Task: inverse folding
């Protein structure tokens, strides 16, 4: 009986020892795994099924951790980068959301249409971003007859002013295409310029924030030329008025004196004859 108890205690001790060894080995393995994986970061995943064309809102998103070494540029960490975007493909619940699945929410609505201007036909003279305002110029060759064959018929004119940019597409740091918002009636002239013109050029005039400050700075600038023009014109107007007043005065003093003397000297001799 004593021998059986001794064996039981021995087996219990061995099993406990083996259990402790297993725990130590497992914890060591987990620690090594964590060290090999490195720091964990949060990424955005779909909290619900998101159909194609759905506007992304915060209630459709959740977060999961992944090792930083597996972090790609297309993965998104902040929900602020997703809110307001539109899904281009269906996204299943639990799927990691990448930037290639989304597009910007287009500004096109109501009576406005988007027209894409692509390089090299279109030239962008400045760093243009969405919501900027631009003026559009077109260069083309005018039609002419046989008499005007030798004349230079090339011309450039302002096509549209104050047009809002809706989207910008880049390849690296280079802008390759720009989308602009136009009313349907204005799209005809721009599409004609793209089809038959030599070059379409975009000149940046400002953006949404700058446009709110522009009237304050532009009003005095616009008022100065008007004031200058107003001061010049009144200064020039008295000169013509002064000259006519001087000439009639001289003419009036000369002509009346000549007319009475001429009839007085000539009439009596004729009457005597």
Result:
């Amino acid at each position: 009986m004593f021998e059986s108890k001794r064996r039981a205690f021995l087996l219990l001790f061995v099993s406990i020892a083996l259990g402790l060894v297993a725990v130590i080995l497992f914890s060591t393995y987990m620690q090594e795994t964590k060290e090999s994986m490195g720091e964990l970061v949060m990424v955005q995943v779909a909290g619900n099924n998101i159909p194609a064309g759905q506007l992304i809102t915060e209630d459709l998103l959740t977060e999961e951790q992944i090792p930083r070494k597996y972090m790609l540029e297309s993965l998104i960490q902040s929900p602020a980068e997703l809110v307001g975007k539109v899904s281009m493909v269906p996204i299943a619940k639990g799927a990691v959301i990448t930037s290639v699945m989304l597009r910007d929410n287009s500004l096109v609505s109501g009576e406005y249409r988007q027209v894409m201007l692509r390089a090299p036909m279109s030239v962008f003279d400045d760093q243009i971003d969405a919501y900027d305002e631009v003026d559009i110029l077109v260069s083309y060759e005018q039609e002419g007859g046989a008499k005007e064959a030798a004349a230079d018929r090339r011309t450039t004119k302002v096509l549209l002013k104050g047009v809002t940019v809706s989207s910008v597409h880049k390849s690296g740091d280079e802008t390759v295409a720009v989308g602009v918002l136009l009313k349907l009636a204005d799209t005809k002239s721009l599409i004609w310029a793209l089809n038959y013109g030599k070059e379409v050029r975009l000149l940046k005039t400002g953006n949404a924030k700058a446009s709110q400050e522009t009237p304050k700075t532009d009003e005095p600038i616009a008022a100065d030329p008007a004031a200058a023009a107003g001061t010049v014109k009144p200064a020039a107007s008295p000169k013509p008025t002064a000259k006519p007043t001087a000439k009639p005065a001289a003419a009036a003093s000369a002509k009346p004196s000549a007319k009475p003397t001429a009839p007085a000297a000539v009439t009596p001799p004729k009457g005597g004859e």
Notes: The chain is about 40% helix and 25% strand. The helical segments are 2-37, 184-196, 208-236, 238-272.
